[in-house]
Each structure stands twice: as C-alpha cells, then as structure tokens.
Design a protein that fits this description.
Strand content: 25-35%
Helix content: 10-25%
Distance between the termini: 83 Å
Structural class: alpha+beta
Order of helices and strands: HEEEEEEEH
C-alpha cells in the first residue's frame, strides 16, 4: 500500500513538474513605447557664488603667541578645502539680515595669520529683490565690535579654532 501511494505521489509530482515547463500561452507584441521628445520642467533651484576660498580676503584677529610670532590684525586670502557650510539665523529684532553663513575649512598647511590646519570663515547674508519675483543673496559688510579684528567694515571674517577655542587636534 505504501508503495502505491509513493508511486502515485511521485507520478503526480512528475506530471506537475512537466506542466510547469510549458511556455506561456500569450504572445507579447513589440510596440515602440519610446518617445521622440522629453520635456523637463525648469529647476526651482538657483545657484549663486558668495564666497571663494583662496580668492576672497578675510579679516583675521591679532595674534600674540608669546614666541615672536605676533601679528597685527589684518587681512589675508581665505583658506580653502571647504567641507561643510553652516547657517545661524539672525534673530535680532528689526534686522533684515537672514543670518550668518559659516564655511568650515579642512586644510593641512600652517598659516601664521589664519592659524594652523582648519578653521572657518563667517559672513552675514541678506536677501534682496533684484527683479519681479527674483531674489538674490548679498554679503553684508560688518564692522565687528571686537578689538581683535581690524577696525574697518569688511564682509568675511576668519575664525581660527586654535587661537579662539584652544587646540582641536
């Protein structure tokens, strides 16, 4: 009896497997679904260059390291090798400025005026209308009330992490 069930089960399995090998009975037509034209909506994003490392001049603090490497406050070409941009909103009452952009630098060279290695460049921005419905971002000149920076109005300020917050390496 067991042999009969085993043979019947084997035949059923073989028959089912054989039916699974038959081709699909529907023929697929080859219609050219390709298009002759593609319409792309205009991008809602606009780009605008505000700061160029190595080109724009940044104000740097006076440095007094006590070993003869003292420098007066002044200006130098900005560092490069940017790795991120941060934004701090301006929450001052009555201010029309958007806030401060901070561009972080990851450099490996030594700079007596801007500090060793990385650092940051900070600048304030404002949105202005230039045409019907088109806005532009401008860098706002600032005169920081800090005795360490030059006493002139400028756009870009260098932040040396080692000189301001201590060793970061």
């Amino acid at each position: 009896m067991k042999k009969t069930y085993l043979i019947m089960g084997g035949l059923l399995l073989a028959f089912t497997s054989a039916l699974g090998q038959f081709s699909f009975p529907v023929e697929i037509s080859t219609v050219n679904w390709g298009t002759t034209s593609v319409q792309m909506p205009p991008s809602p994003l606009r780009t605008q260059i505000l700061f160029i490392g190595g080109h724009d001049s940044v104000a740097h603090r006076a440095i007094s390291n006590g070993v003869g490497g003292d420098h007066e406050a002044g200006f130098a070409p900005a560092k490069q090798w940017h790795d991120y941009i941060g934004f701090t909103p301006d929450t001052a009452t009555g201010s029309q400025d958007l806030g401060w952009l901070s561009v972080n630098h990851e450099t490996i060279f030594r700079d007596d005026k801007l500090g060793d290695g990385g650092g940051m460049t900070s600048f304030k921005i404002r949105r202005v209308s230039v045409a019907d419905g088109i806005d532009s971002i401008v860098v706002v000149p600032q005169n920081l009330e800090d005795e360490g920076f030059p006493d002139v109005s400028t756009k870009f300020f260098s932040v040396d992490f080692k000189g301001t917050v201590g060793e970061t390496g």
